[in-house]
Queue: 3 jobs
Job 1
Amino acid sequence: MEILSKLSGRLAELMKESDLSTPLLARQTGIDQSVIARILHAERMPSAKTLSALADFFACSTDYLLGRKDLPDERTFLPRPPFCERLGELLAHFQVTKYRLEQETGLTEETVNRWQKGAYEPSVESLIRLADHFGCSVDFILGRER
């Protein structure tokens, strides 16, 4: 998976620049050490929550962490709202219905309904799919930027 490989490399680079070990990063972010280790070894894609927490900690965009941008875009990002709220905002912003979103992205009705009910958060792959579809950043999809 190219994205996971890029994320792994970026995370390792940021940790090295900050002189952080995996245990220290885990303590400072509240992310389980094993989750960080699996990301560093390109074994596991993080959750949206973990991705946002890492981006917040390193004061960079999620797109930079994912290798979608070459520059870290260091600025202050907004706190991430629950995705069930953000989904409604996205549908209104892009003037698209749930049905049209499902049809145009290939997402299942069940998946979008679960997001809408707050039962599940989208995977990083789904966030990227949405960002690509709408031509925006993953941070915009997450509500970290407006």
Job 2
Amino acid sequence: MNSIALKNKRILIAEDDDACRYLWELTLEAIGCCFVIVKDGQEAVDQAKLNKFDIVLMDLRMPNINGYEAAAALRAIDKAVPIIALTGYARAWEDGKCQACGMNDYLTKPCTKEQLIEKLLKWTCKVNL
């Protein structure tokens, strides 16, 4: 998979789990992306107010503001940025709650580097693999 197109993409990741944040960081560094990782939904909203991102990866279960609430708040800031739900439960996507708050797609955790690259390319470069 060609990840060269992702080199200059700005990614916001909202993830409250320390181990998951570390894995996202390692994976995104290996791909060569520019990224910001925050610990909760409120921090994600705050970052989106300060910076423009090409895509947001949003954990659903977080303290302060959960992923659903944060996605809805992000939509008020930027209607076009793709928001990808990060969940251990694909059912969270299937029940329509993610779409209802403005999310575009989902990744089931844990995911492979290739799965992540595929989603990033799909939503930031309009490449379907």
Job 3
Amino acid sequence: MQDILIVVDMQNDFIDGALGTAEAVAIVDKVVEKVRRFPGKVLFTRDTHTPDYLNTQEGRNLPVVHCVEGTPGWEIREELMALCRTEPIDKPTFGSTALGEVLRGLDTLEPIGSVTLVGLCTDICVISNALLVKAFLPEVPITVDAACCAGVTPESHRNALAAMQSCQIQIVNG
């Protein structure tokens, strides 16, 4: 059995860039430590937009240009990228079906014992990918480490954690 850690969108624009928050900055060292200590396989996702982002449905609803491919804001935080052993999974929107397919493939090669998610933003991309993983691997226990996540606001972070818990995703703190 293998255990998987998914590091969701720990990118400069979400940490201290266009959509950064103090809460996101505060989790960076915790996420770095989690990745360093994790005994299994670590996968990274990367929010990836094109220069016409504002013309997309997401861009019309969140009109802040961010994570445009090739820009400094799109890059995974340097200290985390140094720990990345596989190519990040680029995703054009909140949840990544490509991530689900990668996990399904890994599970075929060697059964997945658990999936843990950390990263940004709890209330958008973390919850989207946690539920997506649940759909792709319904019998695999899924955990979200709340201490290694941050939401758009502290309140939306807490709401997302409660919603995930309602969907049988275990929430831990550290």
